[in-house]
Amino acid sequence: MKKVIIIGATGSLAKFVINAISSIDGISLTLFMRNRQKLHNSENVIVIEGDAMNYEEVRKAISGQDIVYLNLAADLEPMTKNIVRAMRENNVNRIIAISSIGIYDSPLKSVLKPYRKLADIIEKSGLIYTILRPDWFTNVDEVDYTITYKGEPETGTSISRRSIAAFIAKIIENTELYKNENLGISKPTVKK
C-alpha cells in the first residue's frame, strides 16, 4: 500500500487530484487541511485537520507517508520549510509540489515570489522532487497537456485542473517518473 498525503487538500486543484488518485489501486490517501468543513467527500480517506505553519502538526501528519503532494497558497516559505524538515525527520523522500508559471521571469512579479521560494527550497532540499509550474487553471473537462523543462521557454495556454490532476496521478502511480524535475505544464497551443 502506497501512502500519499495531500497537504492543502481543500484547494481548487486538490479536489481534482483527490479524484484522480482515488482511481489508482493500492493507495492509502491522507488529506491534511486547516478546515475539514470545506471537504465535501471524505470517503475512503484519512482526514487530518491541521495547519502547515505548525511544524508539530505537519511532522505528525507526514509520519509514515511515502509521498507528499503539496498544494498550498499564501505564506509558502515557512510552510515549505516545515514540510521539508518534517519529511527529512520522518525519512519521507518523495514530494510533488505545485508552484506557478512565470517564477523564472525577470523581473519577477511580486505575486509570484512565494512560488519561486517554494521551488528554490524544494530544489535545495535533498528530497526527490517534482515541481510543477502550471499555467492558469480552467475547469474544462479534458486531459490535454504539454510539459516544458526548467530553462526552456514556457509554452502553451491555460490548462484544465483535470489535466494537472491526471499528470500528478501518473507520477504517484510511477514515482520513478520526473524525478528531480521542475516542469512547466500547460495546454498545448493549437497551431493553425
Q: What topology emerges from the helices and strands here?
A:
Layout: E1 2-7, H1 14-22, E2 27-33, E3 46-49, H2 55-62, E4 67-70, H3 76-89, E5 94-98, H4 113-123, E6 128-134, E7 137-138, E8 146-149, E9 159-160, H5 161-173, E10 181-186
Parallel strand pairs: 1-2, 1-4, 2-3, 4-5, 5-6, 6-10, 7-9
Antiparallel strand pairs: 8-10
Shape estimate:
globular
The helix count comes to 5
| Largest sheet report | 8 strands, mixed
Mean pLDDT: 93
What is the CA-atom radius of gyration, in angstroms? 16 Å
Query: Which strand order do you get reading across the main beta sheet?
Result: 3-2-1-4-5-6-10-8
Report the helical percentage: 25-40%
Strand content: 15-25%
Task: Give the terminus-to-terminus CA distance.
Answer: 46 Å
Find the count of extended strands (DSSP E, 2+ residues).
Answer: 10
Topology as H/E string?
EHEEHEHEHEEEEHE
